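Standup notes
- HV: blocked on the assembly model, inputs below
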Amino acid sequence: MTEKKELFFDLIILGSGPAGFSAAIYAARGNLKTAILDINMFGGQPSNYLELENYPGFSLIGGFELMEKFEEHADKFGVEKFPMVEIEKVDLVNELKTVETNDTIFKSKSIIIATGAKAKELGIKGEKEFKGRGVSYCAVCDGAFYKDKTVAVIGGGNSAVEEAIYLTKFAKKVYIIHRRDQLRADKIVQERAFKNDKIEFILCTIPLEIQGTNTVENIILKNVETNKQFNLEVNGVFPYIGFGPNVDKFNGQIKQNSQGFIETDNNMQTSLNGVYAAGDVRNTPLRQVITAAADGAVAACSAVKYLEQIELPLSSNV
Ligand code: NAP
């Protein structure tokens, strides 16, 4: 077996969404030798957003385009980039933090966790079985497969309502199925959906089972007020019921809230020295590109201060 190579940095950033890239820009400008790693392609969740209209400075910009700009900006300051890495182990507890991939051990004295969040699953029968065959968590990726078809979006938040509107570009009918009688989405987003003829709301209703043969054919629903079950014929189901944190590699090492989001203070400091969390992965009141980017900046500045306090940055000793 060939030995893994070792790479030393002042700061390792895990995750390359708005929080990760913003942290990278601030850290590199703060003169830290910085590595940014991601298990996927760079850009994080916003790369999949069709467009954003609330990132200041851009009244309308594609999510992928915005994240390309973040990456180009980090490139300007010489951040070392490692996309598509297979992370096997992360040690946050020791003073020297390590991130082990299949061929490399990354070492640093500070680390920023900016791994974001992933779509929550409904946990109902048929969901796993029909994943990729009618069940999708990404309207932008899969919407075009539903041209002139009927789909159901589950959830009442911004994601559900915005993605439902997007799906009307392809589908002939889009149901929004929500468990309460009030939507959670912003009023401006709700208004757009109410005006869209292709959208029909089914409120106070939860999904019980997704059924079909090769692909999805129908969904069994239950009205929570009457307890009546009924069947709705659909070709696709898009659950948009929120997000949970990407923390698989850190569970048990760090303080997390009851939903698993990492607890931080105002400096993005976690329960461990030299470890910071930024963006959707942390316990934050607002999960937006702008708040994630702001978190990243704060986390990077905290890491700079921490390294100044402990001793010379590791990378300058090697
Ligand atoms: P969210 O705001 O947490 O909404 C999740 C929705 O799913 C809620 O309506 C919730 O119902 C429902 N839900 C949760 N668990 C469910 C279950 N097991 N079965 C059925 N329904 C369930 O999540 P999100 O819409 O993904 O948004 C996440 C964050 O990103 C939010 O802060 C949102 O504002 C932000 N976001 C912003 C934009 C934008 O500004 N352009 C776009 C997308 C997302 P209840 O309402 O009853 O809790």
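- HV (later): unblocked. The chain has two domains: 5-118+243-317, 121-239. Helices lie at 18-29, 63-76, 139-142, 158-167, 187-195, 289-310.
- Next: hand off to the docking folks.
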